[in-house]
Amino acid sequence: AGAAGAARSSPVGVIGVVGAGTMGSGIATSLLTARSKGPGYRVVLVDTSQKGLDRGMALLERGLKSLEKRGRVSKAARESALAERLTTTTDFNALSACDVVIEAVFEDLELKKNIFGQLAQICAPDAILCTNTSTLDVDAIAAAAGPSRAGRVLGMHFFSPAHLMRLVEVVRGGATDRPTLEAVLELTRAMGKVGVVVGNCDGFVGNRVLDPYSYEASFMLEEGAMPEQVDGALKTYGMAMGPFEMGDLAGNDIGWLVRKSRGLTDPATRPANIRYCEIGDKMCAAGRLGHKTGKGWYKYDKSVKGAIVDGEVAELIKEHRNAVGAPQHTVTDAEVIERCLYPLVNEAFLTLEESIAARPSDIDVVYTNGYGFPDWRGGPMFWAETEVGLPRLLATIRRYQAEFPNVPHWRPSQLLVNLAEANEPLSAWEAHLPGRAGLPGRAKL
């Protein structure tokens, strides 16, 4: 089945999902409730064990019932989807009849490469193979499927819970062909999602741009702030939740694993002379992973709604401050907004420079649909131009760059520099990038 084949011309009818965990079951739920052109997608959910499938089925049924309560699916449709259009199995060969396969195992590059090697041997030559990843190299995963399949491999970065969150970053690999891209965008629309095409890099658009936001939040803890102040300032600004609440919800260990994979948690492999905050690592080492363990940056009690400020966290932060000798000052809410959001926007400008994002509005769509950015502010790029102003943004970034020379994300984007110094609007951005001028609002994705 691994021979080269032409691009798909037949409609998508059968879709496989590999991995019945939280993400895989959420994706399967969305597929079963999608507005397909035919009688509905048939879904094959595969896991390595029956125990995993049983857990996934419980999550899937719970997800469908939540959609029923929201009025997004009827009881009859929910029951028929489970009875007539869902197959669960531990047999990988059941994926041989699938038009599209979405791999949704946990973030481990070698594991994903192994799975794509197997899919290359099992699936039809024209099958589309997708990896659900939030940071990993889509081209490295595609290579594991072999050169004959590279055009029909791409990333689909879903957001959790996948049956409720609207955003999907559709990650185009270096060899992904246009028919494959268009087929996956059509599938995304059928699932009721907002698909945004992005380029392949560490973190794509959403998570890459979020890194400096998260790092600055931690740095301010070293300097005198507490999690509840940082979260409170950003929620007052309009964010759905602050970075520490978000970490607890997603699982603090997810970011911890990413930092480990980048060699940041070990001083021996961490880049020299670059500021790094270990508070998050110490939290995870203490078992404070968030909601799943009942404690993270906050503590959680089923009898109490929402996050509860925890004195143990305050003590951990104070011990860390003393250990590293961090200078202290009163962190204001205005400083929180500048230090979290200004470098986020700066990194977003870099994704435009590198053709990772196709246009500024795509970045705004990603953030208002996937990261809780207040839609009434228009998105980070629109906000930066209309409320902050690009000259003021640049001047503030340069001030922080001088104050924190060991923090790379304060180095201003050249695109931002060009626009701000020429006092030009954001709409003029393409004219400042060689090779992009004349393209009507789209990158070479």
Description of the molecule:
With 445 residues, the chain is of the alpha/beta class. It has 17 helices and 8 strands. The protein has helices spanning 22-32, 50-69, 75-84, 109-122, 138-143, 178-190, 206-223, 227-237, 243-250, 252-261, 279-285, 311-324, 333-353, 360-370, 380-388, 390-403, 414-421; strands at 14-18, 42-46, 86-89, 100-103, 128-131, 153-158, 167-172, 194-198. Strands 3-2-1-4-5-6-7-8 form an 8-stranded mixed beta sheet, with helices on both faces. Helix 8 packs across helix 13 (333-353), helix 13 (333-353) crosses helix 16 (390-403) and helix 16 (390-403) packs across helix 17 (414-421). Residues 1-6 and 437-445 have low confidence and may be disordered.
List keywords for this structure.
single chain, disordered N terminus, alpha/beta, disordered C terminus, 445 residues, 8-stranded mixed beta sheet, 8 strands
Describe the secondary-structure layout:
Elements: E1 14-18, H1 22-32, E2 42-46, H2 50-69, H3 75-84, E3 86-89, E4 100-103, H4 109-122, E5 128-131, H5 138-143, E6 153-158, E7 167-172, H6 178-190, E8 194-198, H7 206-223, H8 227-237, H9 243-250, H10 252-261, H11 279-285, H12 311-324, H13 333-353, H14 360-370, H15 380-388, H16 390-403, H17 414-421
Parallel strand pairs: 1-2, 1-4, 2-3, 4-5, 5-6, 7-8
Antiparallel strand pairs: 6-7
Helix pairs in contact: 1-2, 7-13, 8-13, 13-16, 16-17
